[in-house]
Amino acid sequence: MRTKKFQITWLIAFMFIFLFQTEIAAKSNFEAWGAKILNKRIDIPSGWTKVKLESEFRDCDNSIKTYPQQDMLVFKNNYLSMIFEDSHLTAELLTDDSGIFASLGEYEPFSFTLRSFLDFKNLSIEVGDFKSEKNLLRKSNFDIRIVQPLIKKIYGTKTYASIPTVLEKINTFNLNKDKNLQFWLSIHIPPDTVPATYIGEIKIWSREKLLQSFKLQINVLPIKLHTPERNFQLYYSLSLADPIFPSTIEKELLDIREHGINSLALFAIPPITSKDGVDYIEFDSSINSEAYGLNDLVGFYMEAGFDNSINYSHAITDLLNWPSGGWKEYLQMYGVENSLKFLIKNINNQIKLKSWPDFIYGLDEPYPALSDALSKLEAIKEVEGTILVTCHGMYTNTDINQTEITVLLPWIDFPTILRASNEIVKQSQKVKSKNKELWFYNGWFDTGFGIDPAQHRFFYGMDAWRLEADGITDWNYHQGNYEFWDSSIPYGSITADYPVFAYGYPSPEGPVPTIAWEALREGIDDAKYIHTLELLIKQGHDSYYKKLPQVFIEAENFLNTLKWSLPTEYKDRTDFLKKKTQDRSFFNNIRWSIASYIIELQNTFENDNK
């Protein structure tokens, strides 16, 4: 077995080096997370129907009701499997062989489910230090949460489902008889962790009585992951957070950065005012639900470690469609093009004065008013200092030469395609040959936001790699009262066009994560594993130019086979993932194969250097 072979290889290689006990300090984003979302109440209108998803089964496997003879059972489930309180759980999941692997600096999830045959109240759960032969992985590197369901609309229907979504931290919990309760363990492997196998125990307590426990093994691999030259972007809008907590913005940006996102699309439009007949923009306005302090927001962006360009295209669209902060009057007086020029000119001045990152200007989903979009793009390009211009969400499913692309491409630096297609991928080099990048937007396919986390992982990981995307972006870190939720009910109305969704739900303590959010991070990590192996293969070609060792050829063939097996047609992705992820081992099997090749290639270089 490849797994055991490489575990032994790297254990021998690294264990003899470290002859003394060390402690691994926690340096994670767990402290940024809030505990609970504010409100789960949703008013269900008449005429709407609750449905069950395919993965929701009402009857528990009969084999677990008598095996083993315990009051409580622990199931180790793949985290991408949605577990409902009455889900079908099989005896195969009752194994004590629980183990995961992770690389240096990585965050890795682990999920398990408790099922009780009695009613229990006020239980607690404990995660202690994990130990290898000579080292500790401190419990402060672990965060344990309960998976809570939220009601979500099924896209394009008048039906809804209660879907496992949000990860809440609570001190005590209840277990109801013959019901499931899913838990989520996030593990951070600090970059200076000693590669080894760490073993720890998870315990369930009823006050001072130990009810259940199980061991978990974490194989920390001797791998330092490398990030590909790709923009992993996400929309971030304070105007869509309901409610808004300005004091947690720094925590939200820390959370976003730690998930591998390296640039943001910001919505903040600073207000415009006039004094003594001179118009000026208030960049230093406060951050609240009415006006957005762009100066503070960009400052937070930079302090969080972001330095890639800021996507401002949706903010411009908002300015034109829903002007506020004095802009409505300014637009009426000076017109659209002059208003755009005035805003962009002032932002470009701020970029010079305060060393802000570059801004990407443009429009959001310009179709079908192409002539109108063209005049706006021309105005944007005329402003001195404008670096990048895009159109986000360009609707194109067939030929890249169709009208929207043909008309707008000369006026933008790169298109952001809403939906990929085989034809777009075939002709992508036509775009790149003109010194333009190619981005893709929205990876939630046909099932809607957050309903299937596997789609979010796939989009930011293997999908972005297969599409050879220069940038990947999605909607939205948090969602609010704009057109999706009822502002009177936090996390409320399901009657809007889109299902209720957020990657991170706002709370006074900080953002509360979701399964989809953690799946997105896993997708970016998939991209890192692939890129790390690609770099080693390239290094092999450079170093062994006379005869490439067989293992390098095998690794290269593996990646090529994987890449060309992935679908590029938008409509094919849902069926592909449904088939490939039935047992939810699809992603982990691929990652382990890649990690194994990385270790073997690293060992080849080390042995040859000796």
Q: Give the tally of β-strands.
A: 26
Average pLDDT rating: 82
Radius of gyration, rounded?
Answer: 25 Å
Tell me the helix content. Answer: 25-40%
Query: What is the CATH topology descriptor of the largest domain?
Result: TIM Barrel
Number of helices: 15
The H-level CATH homologous superfamily of the largest domain, spelled out, is Glycosidases
Distance between the termini: 27 Å
Q: Structural class, from secondary structure content?
A: alpha/beta
Beta-strand content bin: 15-25%
Low-confidence stretches: 1-27, 397-401, 480-493
Main sheet characteristics: 8 strands, parallel
Structural domains: how many:
2
Strand order of the largest sheet: 16-15-24-23-22-21-20-19
CATH class of the largest domain: Alpha Beta
The gross shape turns out to be: globular
Proper CATH architecture of the largest domain: Alpha-Beta Barrel
What is the compact description of this entry?
It is built from 15 helices and 26 strands.
Could you characterize what this model shows?
- By secondary structure, this protein is α/β, with parallel strands linked by helices.
- It folds into two domains: 2-224, Immunoglobulins (Immunoglobulin-like); 231-531, Glycosidases (TIM Barrel, Alpha-Beta Barrel), CATH 3.20.20.80.
- It is 32% helix and 24% strand.
- Helix 2 (249-258) links the parallel strand 15 (231-236) and strand 16.
- The longest helix has 29 residues, at 515-543.
- It is globular and about 75 Å long.
Give short descriptive properties of this protein:
single chain, 610 residues, alpha/beta, Immunoglobulin-like, TIM Barrel, 2 domains, eight-stranded parallel sheet, six-stranded mixed sheet, 26 strands, 32% helix, globular
